[in-house]
Amino acid sequence: MSCRTGWEIKSSNVMQRIIAGAKEEFPLMDVAEKLESKEAFFKALGDETRLKIMTLLWFEDLCMCEIVDGLSGASSTISHHLKIMEKGKLIKSRREGKFTVYSLDKEKLAPLISYLKEGDLNV
């Protein structure tokens, strides 16, 4: 079977081999929990505000009110983004008195930082 562009549609047998190869190369494809964890990680990176929060936390641990002040955003919006970032395990939170302080998992993000610093991701 082919379409107007000349592309040959792969048969079900060929697709089964491709799927088997993908599962072998990317074992997480077969484990829903791991796939959800990776999805949450990339979702946490997939927003301009969350990337800005990440760059602030790269320099110093901050409480939400400091992040709100630094980004001139609404606290409800920043809170929403922080929850997504926590779910994606980009950040961790800890209580210090009446404040919740957020810190970045720098070890996990270190390989990506050069892409952010360059400005041109080339990805």
Automatic annotation (TrEMBL):
Keywords: DNA-binding, Transcription, Transcription regulation
Domain HTH arsR-type: 30-123
Molecular-function annotations in GO: DNA binding
InterPro entries: ArsR-like_HTH, HTH_ArsR_DNA-bd_dom, HTH_MetalResp_TranReg, WH-like_DNA-bd_sf, WH_DNA-bd_sf
Highest taxon of the lineage: Bacteria
Keyword Amino-acid biosynthesis part of the UniProt annotation: no
NCBIfam families assigned to the protein according to its UniProt record, in alphabetical order: HTH_metalloreg
Protein name, per record: DNA-binding transcriptional ArsR family regulator
Organism: Mesobacillus stamsii
